[in-house]
Amino acid sequence: MLSISKIAKRNIQRKPLRSFCLILTVMLLSSFVFIGSVLNVSLSDGAVSLANRLGADVMIVPSSYRFSQVEGIILTGKPSSFYLPDNALEEVQKLDLGIEKISPQTFLASFKMSCCSYPVQLIGIDYDSDFIIKHWLGKILSQKLREGELIIGNNIASDVGEYLRFFGQDLKVAGKLEKTGMAFDSSVFVDRATIEKLAYESERISAKRLHDSSSRNSVIMLKLKSGHDPEAAAMEINRVLGSRGIQAIFSKSFVNNMSQSLVFVSRAITLSLAVIWFLAVIIIGLLFALSISERRLEMGTLRYLGATRAKLTRIMLSEVLMISSYGAILGIFLGALVIPVINSRVIEALRLPFLLSSIQFMISAAIISGAFAILTGMLAALIPVLRAGRVEINDMLSEV
Amino acid sequence: MKILRFENITKIFNSRSSLKALDNITLEIESGDFVNIIGRSGSGKSTLLKISAGILTPTSGEIELDGENLANKSDSELSRIRNYKIGFIPQGASVLPNLTIIENVILPAILWEHGGDITGYAMILLEKFGIANLANSYPSEVSGGELRRALIARALINHPKIILADEPTSNLDSESSQNILQIFSRLNSQENVTLLLVSHDLDTLKFGKRVFEMNDGILTQKSVL
Question: Which of A220, A353, A366, B217 is 20 to 30 A off residue A106, Cα-Cα?
């Protein structure tokens, strides 16, 4: 049975090339909005995740490492083995910084492993003093991490209960972390005794000492008591211990530095979206104006047969709605196909933590992006449609 | 019963120079009447028809259709009158090319959601005019005469009070023209359909109960059958 929507559908089918161009325009808009919003939120979530997981106010690292190197290791960099000078932990503890908590970590890069196509970062934590990693390990581990056990990052291809071999030692997987968007996703966490053993085995197998000193501490994490300024504490450490091969980094500088990059990326995405939106409005508006001007006689026919101005507008807007809906749905499918590719490439390309948004957010983003694209299509066509509705019937029929 | 009443209708088009298309026209059409207005191109007959259909508004004078004054009606009210009371057949092939013949015929009934078996009635009309076999064809697939018959079917679909036909035989060969005029004649004589037909074709002179001539906007009666 004939209906308003059927008339609109026939109009779409009648000019396949023009309809294709309109659908393509809305599809691109919808997919860009979808991908852009997921990208923005994923980067933002990655930054929040990093800020939460760093947890420390000050990080102490060997002074031979530049800020960008440390940042690279923490965020996305290649696994590294690096160590602080002897007694660094004790010397920092002696300073009057207002330390509330202090905990060392040991970084050890594995050789190439069967589980992964890249070396893995092994991180040894001092379970008794740790105030950062233990907290979120605790969410997946009911008891203390024992010697010979490990917790694996989300990118490590193994499951709980399986064994992974590092430096000839079989270690049992006690838990697997959720995705963090940082280098932790490709890291393995063990306790202090296990990392000592692995470091020893590493030196034995490679027949090369990891470090001249006997220290196994790579990073020292500091949390200050309330009221103490982390920046001032970092400066004090650098003043007193800088000559000892130690440097203190004010942790928030990671997040601040990253925030600048995030703002830049976010602005680039927003600007691209604005340009695409503007182009979409122009293209849709022009194509519809052209389509309407070609169909003046048909509109005149509908009017003298009894269609009110409002009904004529409804028929034309139904057509826009259909085209926009087709485009929006296809755009969301395209976005859903592209997002997983972006997920794996974005860390590499942007060197920023990327925490892919939850499925709930992505569904919401898809719906909002689709609605936005449909609304844009309707808005772009509104002016030519309303203008057409105002034309007198006799003028529409003047071509007869 | 009066279906259409013109009283002192004047229409002046204001373009570069004022053009008086209709000059003080007074005419009454009763139910079951068949009025035929002939005149050369530009004489004002199409203007008269469009004013009757509420497509144009007169500069002065009064027009009543089925007891309703068309002056000062809203767009919605005029649209309803056009849909329910008028079967308008304009010049040329005024159809929606992407709808089939049957869909074009039922289109006026869809616009105001008339109830009943619309498609069944449309098929009856197409059968009556000998084009039922073309129901699912597209306008581009049928001849000019067949399309004109489809337009008559479309004009009848909502059981209007009056059929207004503008040059219904233009661009048709003489056989098709005769065929169309005979359809009008039968509709009037057998089904009492009220008709107002305007044409420049002198062949139409022998059709209609009353024949008028339009000359420079002035209407004069030529004959009464």
Answer: A353
